[in-house]
Amino acid sequence: MARTKRADRELPEVNFSDYGDVRYLHLGTEWVQGSMRLGAPFEIELEYMQRMMAWLLFVDPASVAKRHAMQLGLGAATLTKFCRKKLR
What we know:
Layout: E1 14-19, E2 22-27, E3 32-37, H1 47-52, H2 78-86
Antiparallel strand pairs: 1-2, 2-3
């Protein structure tokens, strides 16, 4: 089985678009990969990302700062920014 060298693979073109106060990240297509409200960059803009943090509804708020989490992939860093700013 032959391996493809990293240099041989094409990475998608990274583009940004703005709509009102929201900046969107696109990777080679018009599909949104991430977003950020420019006036509130540490808030979670996309609904599916908000749902990823729904576990916060089921834990004691005082215990959150002592917990650990593993994040696989970074994407637009939405969850990373939110957790770093809000869950300390």
